Amino acid sequence: EWIAALVRGDRDGHPVPESGPGFTWPPVGLELEARATRGEKSLASQKRLLYLITLLAWFLDKTGWPLGAFDPKRYRQYTALNTDYRKIQDGLRMTVSLSPQQLLELKTYLGKKNNLGMIRFGICEQESAVLTCFVPSITSDAHFHFIDGAGGGYAQAATAIS
C-alpha cells in the first residue's frame, strides 16, 4: 500500500502520459514488424506497405484529423488507458516513472523492509521503455499495450533481487 502511495505522483506512477505515447516517423522496429507480418509477401513489399501506413498514421497523429472511424486523439488516450504497467503474479512487478526523490524514497523503504526480512526485491533503473501493442482494430478502443523497461525491465530487476 505504501509503495502504491509513493509512486502515485501525478498519475499513480503511470509511465505513459494521459495524451498517449509519442509517435515518430519512421518508426523504430519497422523491419521487425515487416518480418513478423509479411506472410507470403516479400519483405521489401511488406516494408513499403508499412512505411506508407505508418506515414499516414503519423500525419493523422500530427494533424489530429480523423479518418473514417479512426480518431488519432482518442486512440492515443486509449493507448494510455489500456497500458498495463503493474503486474501481480508471484510478486508485484511495476514499470513506473519516478522523480529522483521518489526513487530514493522507494529504495530506502524497500531496503528497510528487506533488512527486516519482510520482502525481497530487485530494481532496474532505465531511461526508456518499450511498448508492445496488440491492436486488433485501430477503430476500436479494445487494444492492449504492455510496457517494460528498454534495458531489460522485469527480467533485469529479477536478477537484482536481494
Secondary structure elements and pairings:
Layout: H1 2-8, H2 30-37, H3 43-63, H4 72-81, E1 83-84, E2 86-88, E3 92-94, H5 100-115, E4 129-134, E5 144-149, H6 153-159
Structure described in brief:
This protein has 162 residues and is an alpha+beta fold. Helix content is 43%, strand content 12%.
Structure, explained:
There is one protein chain. The protein contains six helices and five strands; from the N terminus they run ααααβββαββα. By secondary structure, the chain is an alpha+beta fold. The protein has helices at residues 2-8, 30-37, 43-63, 72-81, 100-115, 153-159; strands at residues 83-84, 86-88, 92-94, 129-134, 144-149. A hairpin with a 3-residue loop joins β2 (86-88) and β3. The two termini are 21 Å apart. It has a three-stranded mixed sheet with strand order 1-5-4. A two-stranded antiparallel ribbon has the order 2-3.
Instruction: Count up the helices.
Output: 6
* Largest sheet: spatial strand order: 1-5-4
User: What gross morphology would you assign?
Assistant: elongated
Biggest sheet character? 3 strands, mixed
Mean pLDDT: 87
Tell me the strand percentage band: 5-15%
Going by helix content, strand content and strand pairing, the class is alpha+beta
Report, as a whole number of angstroms, the end-to-end distance: 21 Å
- Gyration radius from CA atoms, angstroms: 19 Å
Secondary-structure element sequence? Answer: HHHHEEEHEEH
Helix-residue proportion: 40-55%
Number of strands: 5
Uncertain segments of ≥5 residues (pLDDT<50)?
none
